[in-house]
Amino acid sequence: MTDNQDLMKTNNFQRKMSPEEVDAAGLDADSISFVEHRKRLLANSWYHIPKPLLLNIFQYLSAPELTSAGLTCSTWHQTSTDDLLWRALIRKDFGVKPSTGIQGQTFWYSEYKRLSYHVPHYQTSELKKHTDQVLHVSFAHNGTMFATCSKDGYVVVWNAQHPVAIKYQRDMTKFCWKFTHFSQFNQSDTLLLVSGVHFGLPQSTSGEIAVFSLGDDLELQCRVLMKPYDICGAWYSDQHFLSGDVHRLGHLESQSVLWLNKASQETASEHIPIMNQMFRFYNCNGSSVRAAMFAYCSVLDHGDSQTLCDSSQTSSRERSPNHSEDDKSNYESREFSDSLYDIQGTSKRICGSECGPGTEDFEPCANEIQVTERCSDDESDISELSETSVETEFSEEDELCVQEDKFLIFTTGSNTYSPHQIGIKRIKPISFPRRMDPGLPFRERIANLNREYQPPNENPNEAQNANAEGTDYDEVDHLIDLHGHIIGMGLSPDHRYLYVNARPWPPGYVVENPMMPPPCAQEIDIHVIDLGEMKEVGKVLRSHIAYTPFNECFFIALDVCNEFVASGAEDKHGYLWDRKYEICLNKYPHQDVVNCVAFNPRDSEMLVTVSDDCTVKVWHSKNRSKELGFDTKSLSTAHEVRSNCCGHRSTMSSVRRPANAEMKRLISRFPVQFGW
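== F-box/WD repeat-containing protein 5 isoform X3 ==
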């Protein structure tokens, strides 16, 4: 029997064969029946349309139409996944620049599927436990739980697996907290750091950090005062965290002191330190250190790393506990003299009562040990411990000794009190002393204080400034000015890139009065800073809006995963962008301001948003919703934003869709061309 492909090429294939032709071909009845059947089948099919022509037709289809066409047969499926078609679709639907390429073995079809099918899209849960504005959300590193903070004074820990349920909760108003506003899990997810605001006057900036263990219940480990409260605190290691204080020096001048704290502060001896001073920074024009966080430096493998390290070690004003082995002995002696627990009264620290008159608006250092009179027996015991006999051994097993170099990142300012600069300070591994120097006996300290006492100056600012001139301050390694009010920061998972929410100031605006910051734009820009190069890179992302006046700006947090970056906004939506193509993909609706968003670190297809509407919403991708067995038809959805620029939906297509008459004319050509 003649092969099917040969039959299709014969001139007589489109008409009924005559008896003479059958006899000449030598075909039997079965072969003739088979040929006639194939003729009828192919007469009503597009199966054998050449691929170039099929591609020409498919280019006018949308993504859903193209996917449906691919279900017809194997040939159409192969053609419908052609990379040229999906490259055109991803540029048309998502506004990806034509010059943008793909890396590795990724195909445009896979990229389109990732941007549409693996992005958080369906609202799978709406949690209404909180009774007031929800300000913050953070995930555990293992992705099994997340914590929310609210103005109702509660911190709530939720199970992340569906169905989402409360695992722990704690009412922080029992500790005289006004509300909670920040939380963070340690690296092992065994401890939870929570920071909040104390009850007080509206102008009060006093706050506190509480650390809880995540066992059978939230068990309180320690509490540390903090000022201002928007330092927030951060985990330096698995068992040590950062806190801070600010102390007034004079008119619009202050100093920010950052402390390293032990998470478990139970101690059997008063000579065992539980805190250690890290840095002391000078502030001007009413500014201070805020929103501190840590980033690993392991991503740096070029010359900038060594340069930055050298500059930190050779700084003439450096007084950080970050030194080489050659300087270990010098460091230990300075460490005790500059420690928080230095009770000799001869330290150069300026805090609490040492600031002189006129500091009633600023509280004394919250963690400073108050000098109280002791009995004679205690004095004799302390006097036996001289400075040379103090134990300064450091355990090799201490987790601080094995920490990698890190960056301390914070917001600050120099022109006005509103934060407009990113400060970056490199930290070498820190050693925590085993014992602290008890100092001189109580009576000798009192005698020294009496000898050093001087009548107060009539001008308190002059006295404070004179005292501040002899104080050593740590220098910031890098300052990056964004010329705008910074309202949020987030690190990429590899700690290489820092994403910053900022409301820009007018171009070229010069600050004349530090107490009158420039007006802010309503648009929020996301700046990307490369911590390896210490400079701003990439495109400024803009889609979200803020309406709060410049003198009342508050934090709008953002979060970053490997593929996406998400942020809250004051226009009642959360936003999500693709990091690779720098395009806005989705908007997540709420009834009020969206304060914070967070990705599940183990599943970027899960996103949590929190809002002033007192709700916590959980979003899953189309793919994950299907795996979890949701009826997607009954779920609320995010608003898809197919952006050509600035996050606005594009209504024009880069490929013109032909009119119906033209489509019919194109289709009508195919039977004529192939003799159908």
